[in-house]
Fold these 2 entries.
Entry 1:
Amino acid sequence: MTLLDDFLIRAALGGIGLTLATGPLGAFVVWRRMAYFGDATAHAAILGVALSFAIGMPIYAGTLVVALAMAVTVASLAGRGHASDTLLGVIAHSALALGLVAASFLSGLRVDLTAFLFGDLLAVSRSDLGVIWVGSTLVAALLAWRWQGLLTATVNEELAQASGIDPRRERLALTVALALTVAVAIKIVGALLIAALLIVPAAAARQIARSPEGMALAASGIGAVAVLSGLWASLTTDTPAGPSIVVAAAVIFLFSLALRRR
Amino acid sequence: MTALIATEGLSVSHGGAAVLDRVHFTIAPGEIVTVVGPNGSGKTTLIRALIGLERAATGRVIRAPGLRIGYVPQRLQIDATLPMSVRRFLSLPRRVSDAEAAAALARTGVAGLGPRPLAGLSGGQFQRVMLARALLSDPQILILDEPTQGLDQPGTAAFYKLIEEVRRETGAAVLMVSHDLHVVMSASDRVICLNGHICCEGTPRVVSAAPEYRALFGLGTGGAFALYRHEHDHDHEQDAGHGHDPAHPHHAHAHAHAHVHGPGCSHDPA
């Protein structure tokens, strides 16, 4: 496939693949006010990267395991009413710092961890592309499969439980989806900007959407436009790709405010 | 007749503090039960326990197998970022056809509200939409959490009337929670007075005359009390508010035998 030999095509495909997951998942993050939760999971993923290098595990696997452990921990704390903003902040930033410190102890670590803080979409390989598309498709499928239950539990937990839907199970589904998304996204947008990719397109989509489904799809679409515009900006003005994508999404958000439906 | 939902000596505590204490509760098919109690008396916790969202410290909750519950929440804290029309809401959790949705809205007196955003409804419309959604699951029991909060008196009376009609048509049991002391639905088969434990229970008239009820709600200090009744019922014998001395709440009440005292029920509002 000569098409995929072009790094720019790979970058575009990687970014668009990611928006399959970040659109609908980002909608839930916004609806359920899980922004900080997303941050905590993403920051903990740096610890997963360091551990992966330490024990020679594939980075995606190590990141997924640590992100999942972090997400489940935070979710169970939230379920018991312990998850204040303060506690989440302590956990998130401690995990990030611990990951960076742990990495410095690894002798002979030649990979610069900052690549995982900010990501490098332009360095996406063919195998990365495979991981991104498989992971994102899994997340989108998981959310589609549980959509009605997730939405009911988001609207009201009692209402869900009375209908025989266990809100804890739905929360777990979102937790797994979040960890999976963080794991596939960390190489291309980096731990610090994953949450932005979840929230900003969804926030922009809110202004034009009239149904939950419409908002999730619009968030994916806006995310894809942001990926392409960010890449273009990166190419023409030599700016870093990941942050450029988030800036593009933020610009779309500003325009969406003008389009707001009354 | 076996109970739809029952609790046996149910206790629930939150962070070490007992919220419910050895509550024995049961509701039979077709029965209308109203639970009244002041704020913090455990009404919401009882509902959450009956639905299955609270873990029992002791005792247990027994639900009839395959029980279909129609739940009407007090309010929904839908985040402003979630775009949700009335029509879309009716399709939660089961997707219903447009015809089913329209029929449910018409039944509860809010036909044509489908395209409206949920966030833009008035209190009365909101409760009727919640009820319409609950009816779509063909419930054996309707559970309503303070359904008339925020409604004015005519709105409350109209909503109670609607509940009675629905009960007559569907035969569903109705469990209603209220701290609305001024109007208690007279159609209730039983009223349960809750304050952590069951203080007293019985028919609405019996409970409204019970000293436990009066002590709990401080009616001796001039609070008004009226049963909502049908238009043809002009019986005012239960009207309260005449200088009842709170220091002697036990006197002058020849209350019937039908009501049950809970253990350790304080007759002293302090």
Entry 2:
Amino acid sequence: MILGLDPLFTDGVDIGDVGWVLVKVIVIFVFLMVAVMLNIWFLRKVIADFQNRIGPSVAGKWGILQSLADGIKLFMKEDLVPEKADRFVFKLAPYLSLVPAFLVFAIVPLGGDFNKSRELADGTVETGALEWGDNITYLQLADPPVGILFFLAMSSLAIYGIMLAGWGSGSKYPLLGSVRASAQMVSYEAALGLAIAAVVLISGSLSTHDIVAQQAAEGWFGIVPRWNLIVTAFVPFIIFLIAGTAELNHPPFDLVEAEQELVGGFHTEYSSIRFALFFLAEFMNQITMSAIAVTLFLGGPAGPVLFGPAWIWGIIWFFAKTMFFLWGLVWVRATLPRFRYDQLMDLGWKVLIPLALAWFLLLAGIQVGQDRGWDGQDEIIFIAVFAGACLLMGSLLMAAIKTARQERLEREGVDQHG
Amino acid sequence: MTAERVLRRGHDSAVLRLSEAEAAEIGNDPDTPVDDERVLLNMGPSHPSTHGVLRLMLEMEGETVLRSKPVVGYLHTGMEKQAEQLTYLQGPTNVTRMDYAAPLFSELAFSLATEKLLEIEVPERATWIRMLMCELNRMSSHLLFMATNGMDLGAVGMMIYGWREREEVLRFFEMVTGLRMNHNYIRPGGVAADLPDGWEDEVIRLLDITAPRLDEYDVLMTGQPIWRERLQGVGVLNSDEALALSATGPLLRSTGYAWDLRRHEAYLAYDEIDFDVIVGTYGDCYDRYAIRLNEIRESMKIVRQIIDKMPAGDYRVQDKKVTPPPRVRIDESMEALIHHFKIFTEGYKVPVGEAYASVESPRGELGVYIVSDGTSTPYRMHVRGPSFINLQTMPHLMKDGLIADGVAIISSVDPIMGEVDR
């Protein structure tokens, strides 16, 4: 059952449940479209603030309809297919990029009251569902058992859109962009996956709803929330942020587009609505990536109820946290210079992946220790072994890097710059 | 040893020696690479980071640039030839359009060459006004570099910050000359107009605004790890190579070779002013960035000294041959009207001879060579444009770098295409 663990389906699927799912699909679709529109406007307004400008101000109040106007303009533009392009691939690519961006949002828990739990008809206990008459359902489109793996699958699929766009354009700049894209996204996917694996390890579940429900539990001292951010001790979170930004092709990792080098990268040859689709996908991915980060590390919609109806606070917390990430993305975009291709690879393979792997092993060790009831002595032995192993692997890695550099220098000739 | 490296020809040379026809034959179709591994990539003339209309033919292996060839001429306007039709009075209007980021330097070089031919001495105040304006112009030009360099490396915010500070300088230029660029302010015999009342306050305000903002640049870029990674060790040149390629300006100074015409062939009144010549060590893009940033600070130091030392007196030479009469005299005197008319239509005659005058423009040695045949227009004018000559270092800087380094290198050589093509 793809829609998964939602309590809506505990008593079988009837026509009413299908109706519910359809309503959710429509709400999420409309929400995403509007959110992307507002996200573009938000980006332009905030970045204008960073740069002492006013930003969009003509279309609608505070220029809020700017993206709508841009979208309409792009629809009206001539749709060009370059002569040398592979026509089928060229036309297919934007959709390959857009569809995964939409789909990922299906597994994000958008709201719900995670502070109280109830027993369902079949005896299981759940939290965070919404009650509407007889129907009990989660505020998320789907909660498949594969959960977060679905996100990884979709973000891998999105690479194809970019790769094929560059390849299908039949032009050199897009080709360079797509070669960069495939290398970049494939290598950062590994770090991203390892960071997520740490969360999955702690939660013991792949389901996004379960991951959130776990984080909603009572925290330390009553005020520090039990977010995975803290439970996994920040490192996977930071790795996720960096790898996620790279996965989005967002500055400082926007080598795929790299306006100053590759003109427009993979979308150089695109115009009109096809370009708009890429644009839409890019900004939608920002929203989904932020939402996933919130779900995995910041407790998703979990948070205290201050006043009024409880369910509304889940949504408010979710949006507040997501906005925080979106703002952070704009901040990074406005400030940082772009990485170079080889530096990007260095960061991914030589820093992020080993670090994520080591941290994952550490968390796994602690988890095993807790399960088996290790005492102080066992823990000391574990930490010593872990530190030793890390040191060994680290020095091996260093030696490898050093040898590689040495060989390269020898190959190029050491007298290079006298 | 290294000077030979840059001059060598053949297949391992950095310069791509390929004619347009050959390039068109193998380069246009992405499916037919130069050989199995290499492709020919055409960067420009319209490309976001080629600073106008520079075109680069790059022979690439993957992302690595093997050989390259800068192609110029897309902005050719024939200014050197044009100068032969224009009188010496009209000359600055022409040359000011060459280096549009630092127009006052071209005017200055032209005026100095003409004054050498005329053998006139400009009043002291005119000299100091010229120095003030040129140093401010050096600031605005380097601020423009800060903006474009930041932009080329992807720090988009920096672009706006650089423009913002440059705008302050341009505001002062507008107040003095009436124009933001192409001023035609420095003319043979002095400057076009005296400084307006209250100019000191304006300049001090400008300097006070700029100083803390340069410190912000340090926070945003100088110490930024990605920034350093992107620039350090990229586009390395040493002194021998730089001299062999006759590079000047920040490009030469970045190699540690302290050559600055303000110091070594002191023109105007630079010998009365205390300033440092900024040099680098490694000759890489980072040094060139740091040199320009610190040259802004150095120019600010010079400007402050000029404010203190600005002498009173005439702002142009009182030689009736080259200086038109004051506007009020034209209403009173028939002779003044005729004199005015003659100067602006016929111009003044310049003695037979030839002269070369060079100044340290923000981009290097800017020289103007004028041959006079005794008429009121030059027989021949030649300009040594530093952008043009520095451009020939580019294939050597780019060799074996990545395409992203290439962008950083174009930016750090900082060519102004108006001056390259003239």
